[in-house]
Fold this protein.
Amino acid sequence: MSKGCHRKQRQRSSLLLTACIFFALAFFASPIFVSEVQAAGWYNASWQYRKQITIDNTKVSGTANLTNFPILINRTDIEWKDTVNGGKVGQPDGGDILFTKSDGITKLDHEIEKYVDSTGELVAWVNIDSLLYDTDTGIYIYYGNADAADQWNIEGTWDSNYTMVQHLHETSGTHYDSTSNNHDGTPIGSLNQNETGKINGADDFDGSDDVITTGVATSEFFSASTKTISAWLQSTGTSPVETAAYDGQAIISCERAYWGIFRASIGGDDRIWIYNWDEDENEGKIGITYNNDEWLYVTLVHNGGNLYAYKNGALVGSIASGDTDDITNNLVIGKNYYATVFFEGDIDETRTSNFARSGDWITTEYNNQSSPSTFYSVGPEETNAAPNAPTLVSPANGSNTNDDTPTLSANYSDPDAGDIGATNYRISSSSLVDCNNNTNIVASGTSAETSTNNEATTWTPGSSIGSDVTYYWCAQNDDGALTSSWTSIGNFILDSTAPSVPGIPAATIGTNLTSQDWTWTASTDAGSGVSQYLWRVDGGSSGSTTSPAVTTNLAEGEWKFYVKAEDNAGNQSAESSSLLAVFESSINKITIDCSVPVVYVAVGANVSNPQLDLTPLTSVSGELLEANLNCELRLKTVLPTAVVGVDVPAGIVISGPISNWSDKVIVPPTTTTTTNTALLPAGASTSLAVIIGHRTVPLNTTKGIRVFMEEQAGKKVGYISNNVFTEITSTCTDDSQATGDALSAGGNCKIDSGSDLIIWAKHFSDYITYDLAQSSAVSSSDTSSSAPGCGDQAPGAKAPWLYGAIPQDGSSILLYFTPSDNPVNKYVLEYGTKPGDYSYGVQDMGLNSRGQMTFLVKSLAPNTTYYFRVRGGNGCATGPWSNEISAKTKGFIAFNQLEITQSELESQPVEESCQTYTVKSGDSLWLIAKNLLGDGNRYKEIIEQNKDKYSSLETSTALQTGWELKINCPSSAKASEGAAEKPEQQQGYDVKVKVVDTNKKPIEGAKVTIHSKIQETTTNKDGVAEFKNVEAGDHRVLIAYKNFEGEQSVNLTGDVKEFDLNVTVQQKAISLSPLAYGIIGIMGLIIIVLAVLLNKLWNTRK
């Protein structure tokens, strides 16, 4: 191999290695962006053709964009001939020509000064809203729409600072002003209006009698201090010799020559003069050299007490000149009325502005108007493309609907992104539908136009297409000029039959009366199938469920529950309903009218004198008052020692003597203390005594009622009626309504059901279960406590304290919190990405065996802040929520990370202050002591401080709701001694942060920063950093050591002196998330493949 080949091989390897290294560095240094390159949108499908015009930014003067700049398009293009002459323009006057921005959609205002349909010559002015100085500006010219209205907007082409624009292209008559000011010009004399100009047409002034008058005072064009005047001119003949500029030939001026552009030879200098006579009667003039028969672009700018002269876009001089002395004279072109001198030569494109145009503006005007062909370039012709075939959106293929005039939807798209189009639709009831040939079609139509590409269109048939069959449909996009192909066939099922009505909703209620589990018999549907059940509560909540069950949390009150079924086509059944009444404390009565099939009544242990009013159902029959119930009653009472229930069937008649049962009420199972125990057998020990039905009146029933007595199986049972105790000895054959109904009038029987006792009877009575002392069948044994469930009370009032949150990586955060009050067998977590908005949750985080509770929340998004809260719960209820705390997950890649592996936050209590506590329902001395004194075992201190006021505390720990207890209050003597001492008020917390490594060795010299109000210090030799007066709430603790950093979130709250935060850390040089590892693996594979391909390419070329 030659030396040259060796050198090339080395160069190839070096290039390959360099490319790989660069590729890898670029990946880690910058995020990866994937962009889609898409052609500019199409303005409207009715325009068949367009060309892109690109403006050369090097021809735009200055270092800033020019706003609302009118550019000149001056070009002859054979494709711009009209269609009669073999071109593409749709109208002979060019009325269908329009211009847009580079997006191909946003229209730009333009004026056509000249259009020749036979040659394709176009002279037009286009307002560019932002002409770029550092990047080429692109625009589009559209044409080819014979039916379009005229597209130009002449006045909109010129910004509001222009006060007159006369192109002087009219070959006879009035010269029209293109602005909205109507400052038109009237030719006078033998003016030749058919001269060839610099841009288009021009006027030839003969120097003897030619002039254009406006009849409008100068003050209508600009102010005395600020003005811009420009014109293209080509002088001929001899310049007059004068002593002052205002005596020369006026190109554009006012009748008294106080300002203007003049031609004169003064003192031997033959010049075009830029002139202004100011209020101090000073003549300000600047001369511009010129040559006869040579077009010259001249601009006068007067602003800020200075006069500026521009020749061919370049500043040639400036001079101080005050406000113009007089601006009341009319503006004229071509004549000096003051000296009666006429201009000799050609004038084209005269403009005035009430604004001082910049030098960059004037230079760019000259570059554009002097050489349009180099100012911009014109691209090849583009043709409007047909739209894409639509994507069928809805109804989804194979879906169900109950609408016999279904709304069809498809996605409109077009390669020309800006096209406005519509979609054609066809529906058939036959699978043999042929959309292309329009066969077997039952309905068809077209959607309204869509104004946005990639937007769904819709169409609805005007009348029914039928029902309960499978339909087939197709669609075609139409942009107004071209159509797509028809799509493949979609199908949907039209189902108009509703599912069956769900069964009557049944409520199951545990010891927590405000939590209800509802179930019902599932509906059936022979068509599309049941999709969901829709439930609601009058005056309460509502929702949906896919299974025939739902849980509600209805508070004390009277609630009607409704449920209906919905099938996959959207058909809904009629509603099924039942009534629930919850008596917990303040409500104790409900009127039963049987407006629903089943009434559920749940009564709490603390309800006084609960009643069910049967007045709407009662009638008199001889000496009896009868209540005819055509609905079921399901009565349940949670007593202090047991749960008792009564089921009353529909169709039952309850009767009692009218003389005694005048209140027409019955009572659900209620504890009785009036039982005459002397009536019971000797040696009887009462287990449970309840009244069911009425407190004094014996009530009989025509059907059996079912009495449920919890945990009373195996006990003796009887009832008292008319002061006589009768033991129930008959055993029921089974636990069924048929058995109860088969009882004789006033009869009864009993049967055990597990550990519970069931009584079937045809009367309401005072029922008692009891044990006999001599019975040897009763035994007892110690039982271990079970996990909290619905037989336990709700969790205590103390909420967990969520005091720490530490990001572990890009997808997980470790939470630290304290336990809540028992009984608790689980913890519930809610979290989200906004404060107070919790979109995610964990229903059971379990329990930790130690006091410090932790939980690792996984599957989080990287580099995202989350907000968390927790609460305890058991099978009965959930406790109060903790405080909210936030933390931010780490990014994909972290360098020099100081990882916090363990964190414990301990509070140091302060001396409790004297306070008064009002006892609430459910309170106990131990619970109050734990919540207010930090230790439940200190309840004896509360007894000692309150026994004088509440003497029962000396013998009993029972509390009464409403008692006002003194907590942590000294005796009166001690109180008087310390009355003069004012306790120091705590303004904030003292916080100690101890930092140790994984071997529990203190870390000295670590910088610790605590936010929100920033405090910063360094750990001492014991690894401790101390902070004073730290405010309550959430804080971020940042720990930095040897260029490694780590942070965690903590929450400070409570009546304590100080917090001790113990943090264990370890150093990690780099940390990558699993996603980062995956991306690195993919990039490595790409680099290897690239190397192989380059090697093969090199070997092939050899």
